[in-house]
Amino acid sequence: MSKHSDVLVVGAGIIGLTAAWRAACRGLSVTVLDPTPRDGASMAAAGMLAAVCEADFGEPELAAMNVDSAARWPDFAAELEKASRLDVGLRQTGTLTLAFDPDDLAETRRLIDLQHRWGLVSEEISTAQARRISPLVGRVAGGAWMPDDHQVDPRATTRALDAAARAAGAVVVECRAVRLTSASGRVVGAVDAAGVDRTADLVVVAAGVSSTGLLATAGIHAPLRPVKGITLRLAAEPWFDVEPVVRARVQGRAVYAVTRVADESGFREVVIGASSDEKPDDRRVEAGSVFALLRDARAVLPGIDELDLREASPRVRPSAPDNLPYLDASVDGLLVATGHGRNGILLTPLTSAVVDATLDETDLPDVVAPAMMNRHTRIRTEEAS
Prior knowledge:
The chain is of the alpha/beta class.
């Protein structure tokens, strides 16, 4: 059996649903394939829009993409909220970075220096200044303030994208794509696990770690590795009024806490994360990972001891060898939008712009040029020469 759509999207996470919405709102017929829609990495993400905090040595291209995409978030959120009539939880809170001990503070200063060299806004602050921003800060050596790093609610955003895509006519089919189909050098569709041959004028692959195997069926090389992370969700009473995103370095280990707005009962969700282990998506919650997250979070925010632990969410992030995403429309009939790693939420508006450009047959944003799939082959060729 064969079925045709203008656009076939493989993957119903935040990236795939973004592609579906952008295509459907143009009046195109859209089918989305995913065996478990809205159950991937987006469900565990904290939603930090941390372009400055995420800037790291050896990753200038990724930093440029993050900064570009962060600037797009307000307009993206406003358009999505209008289309879905749902709040996505975008809050301009700034980010407070804490250093637990003198060694952590030294590393924080190294990163501040890097951020300044790249033209990013960050400021070292004292312990007293950190406590003026949030009185619940514990005993720390110092920290930094990033006024341009904010937050959004990934689960709310994913719900809004799903609603907006469906309202515009997209159809979500709970089935797995098993292979891509090609003709005359062009990708023309995919066969799903039910044996349906689904043809399309454009196929968007946004299937997380599964993208590598699916693309390989069409002879396309896009290596991804699963990086498992666990986030914890806790319920806080009104006294836990930590407004900014808090990121910390505790004896060299990274931890963060993101506080949402209060619900009708006055409780606020606090997301703590994230562990990082290169292992498959086994959905196990290891006791050691939970212990390590709580240990490090309470080291800088002791009040966490009083919160109610409500949920532990294990998921894998699809990460390329160089931590850059794949944003590539160089193969006829195909757009690859996957491998966003730890920056999937942050990079969603930029990915949306890539989808828009592909659908409109215009040039992709210049900043995504390093995200082509052939970069690994190009590096190997250059090394060989």
